Amino acid sequence: MIDPTPEDEAALEATKAPLMSHLIDLRKRLVYAMAGFLVCFGICFAYATPIFNFLAQPLHHALQGRPNDHLIYTALTEVFFTNVKIGIFGGLCLGFPWIAAQLWMFIGPGLYKHEKRAFLPFIFWTPVLFITGAAFVYYVMLPFSILFFTGYQTLSGSGVIGIELQAKVSDYLDYVTKLIFGFGLTFQLPVLLSLLARVGMVSAKGLRSVRRFAIVGLVAVAGIFTPPDAFSMLCLAVPLVGLYEVSILCVAMIERDKNRNPPAAAA
Asked: Is the overall model pTM greater than 0.70, yes or no?
C-alpha cells in the first residue's frame, strides 16, 4: 500500500467530523436505504402476479397441454404470503442500486481518491455478475431441471398407479428464489478473488497451485446452494469452475498492472 499524497490527506481531512455526525449520517443513510427498499417492495408487491407468472413460465412450458398445467395452494394464506415473498425478493433486487448508493455515500468520503478508483469497478461488476447468475438460472438451468424432475411422472395403467406433479405456489417460488440467490451470490467469485488480489492476499500462481482443492470446494459450495440432487449441483459447479479460471486471469491482469505501474496499482 502506497502512502497517500498531501492532496489526498488534505481531501480526507476536510471530510473528518465528530463521531456523532458520523452516527447521524449513518442513521440517515439507513433510513434512505430502508425507504428505497419499501418503495421497491410496494411496487413488486403490487405487480406480484405478473412477476410470479414470469418466474413460472419454465414450469408452464414443461407442463403445457397436460392436465396438471397449473399450481395449487393448500393453505388459506399461502398465496398472500407468496406475494409478500415476491415483494421482498423483488424489492431487494430492484432496490440494490439505491441501497448500494447509500452505502457508498456513507463510506466514500472516508476513502482516498485512489481507493475510490480501486473500488468503483467492483461496485459495477457485483450487480452485473448477480444478474448474469440469475439469467443463467432462468434461461438455462431452470428449464432443464424442471424437465428432469417432471420426467418422474407416470401414467396410470393396469397394475400401475399414476404419479402426477401437483406443484405448490410457495414451494415453486422458494425453489426458484433459492436458485437465483444461490447462483447470483456464487457468481461473485471473480469479484471476491480480484478484491483479495488487490490487497495482496492471493496471487495467480497461488490460485493455480490450489486449483484441485478449489474445485472440490466449489463443488461443495454448489451442493450447499442448490437443491439436494446431483443435476442442480452440477449446473452450478460447472460454471463456478469456469469462473474460477476467469478469476485467475483477472488476478493475473491485476498483478501485471501492479508491475507496470506500482504506485497506482498498489492502491
From this structure: yes
